[in-house]
Specification:
By secondary structure, this protein is of the alpha/beta class. The protein contains 4 helices and 5 strands, in the order βαααβαβββ.
Length: 155
């Protein structure tokens, strides 16, 4: 399974009124909104991801009331809940302040170190690239200009 998250689009905007719990749980069914009752195993999985992202105290709050970084974490939990083999994050730090960006990047690094997910991370800014990224493809006007196949170190 492949999961794609485009934070700049309105793809997730219909989830803004839903609770954090329902947003994360809806990822199990690939729906915008939760329309099914969860079984015990599914409920445990949702709670595990909510806990991993430090959103336990926000579980029943509407997504729209959370800070941008927390919203991003909830949407990432939604994308990860089915353990995808490939995760594409398109400009995931857009709209986050420096503190939120650094926190989000640490979470991405932790996820990559603990799972076998392949990550494609799209960004216009080198300071937004997580440490777990090992290959970098630079494009200019849609054409490859460089390909770096080594550990990328960001400061």
């Amino acid at each position: 399974e492949i999961r794609f998250c485009d934070w700049s689009s309105d793809v997730c905007s219909s989830d803004l009124g839903s609770s954090v719990h329902n947003v994360v749980a809806s990822g199990l069914f690939d729906t915008m909104g939760l329309f099914r009752k969860l079984n015990v195993a599914q409920e445990e999985l949702v709670n595990k991801w909510i806990g991993f992202f430090g959103l336990t105290s926000e579980t029943h709050k509407p997504l729209s009331l959370l800070a941008a970084g927390q919203q991003r974490s909830a949407l990432l939990a939604r994308a990860l809940i089915k353990n995808p083999v490939l995760l594409v994050l398109d400009e995931p730090c857009q709209g986050l302040d420096d503190h939120q960006t650094q926190h989000f990047l640490r979470l991405i690094d932790e996820i990559c170190s603990q799972s076998s997910v392949t990550l494609i991370f799209v960004s216009h800014y080198d300071n937004e690239i997580p440490r777990c990224i090992t290959d970098k493809l630079e494009l200019q006007q849609g054409k490859k200009i460089t390909l770096v196949k080594e550990q990328i170190v960001t400061v």
